[in-house]
Amino acid sequence: MKHLLDFYRVRFVIAFATQVQYRVSSAIWLLATALRPLISIAVWSAVVQAQGGNVGGYNTSILAGYFMIAMLVDYVTHTWVYEQFEWRVHEGYFSPLLLRPIHPIHDDVAQNITYKILMLIVVIPVTILLLIVFHPLLRLSLLAGLAFGLALLQAFVLRFLVE
């Protein structure tokens, strides 16, 4: 188990360096993560205001809460394993990875976790901005919040393994 923890420690450092190396690509992903909920809320806020403050029983605060949660779900469950896996198999890089003492899935896990940690740089400020500007309505009890967090973690694991 210690060798696996050492592997993850090293892979986190390498994945962080790789993410920082591709600054433009990372900036595009960060920008997309930040703009998607902002644009959605702005558009639907305009629709709600044009309709007199209510569309289908939803007001701006409810829609802002929805798009904040959607951003969180997308952020946590997003993975790109299927793209890398297909490329590895197609180009012949997967077979040599299977000969290593540690399964290649551990490298993918480390890369995904590192990416999610780096994306917190954008997700946290965007969430705070959305809270300040749009005053989203989020009715969440402690038990529902815990269940949501557990379901979100399971969704990430399921999506990661399926891909």
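(ticket continues) Second input and output from the same batch:
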Amino acid sequence: MAIGQKLEDARNRKGISIREASESTKIRGDFLTSFEAGNFDINLPEVYLRGFIRVYARFLGIDPESAVADLNLEIGSSNNKNAKKSIGRIGGTDVSDNKETPSVDSSRNSSIKLKSPNTSLKPVILIAFSVFAVLLFAVVLILIFSSEQNESHVAKQDDESQNTIRETKLDQVVDDKSVLKNVSTLQENASTEAVLKLAAIGPIERLIISDEGKSPKVFHEFKNVEIGWETSIPFSKGFRCYSSSLQNIRFAVNDGIEKQVNGEGAGNFSWSL
């Protein structure tokens, strides 16, 4: 069954309208209608298209990875058809154009030979060529400088948007008792280690996760999370999570079932082993 038909059947089983699905997933209604109709040629980058399909499938209770795999098959078959058409066009049109080219070039060459060279234009041509070379060199320098600045700006934005982990450490006390206490704490944490999986079905301005099992606690902070974002975080015993948009966050522990957080807007939720 095509992915569009799967999405439509799942939505109908839930008794949800396109408008309700759009409001819950924050995806435009015309996009959802196109997805269900199997029309993915909507002038949308493939990375966003896959992200929307993943979010919509998760919302309808369909395996997101299976939905993206079906999407890739449909996109791939469409691209193969377009490629075959373009190959047939090149084989017909371009060859005939190449056959006509020599006659045009020969006529131009014959007309050029009939004209006598104008030697007075040589200095002007040399000056124009020199000016053009200088301008070209200046443009190349500007492009190199702007590309370096863009790369540094993008790198800075990536650093700010990536996961930032802040760890608070206690002052180390050099004595046998503190060493033994730290060793026992590490062994206890290792025995209760788990993995928290987070996914965003909508934009989240700020997200903070506190590892409640660590002493001292370890905080994971994420800013300006976009739709389709996913991550995995190890934790011990339990965690507490703050989200500026509770309705847009989904979580699962280890290989458990993905769960939806109750509530809307800013708030906290916690979980413990």
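Agent notes: The chain is about 55% helix and 20% strand. The two ends are 40 Å apart (CA to CA). Closing as not reproducible unless the customer responds.
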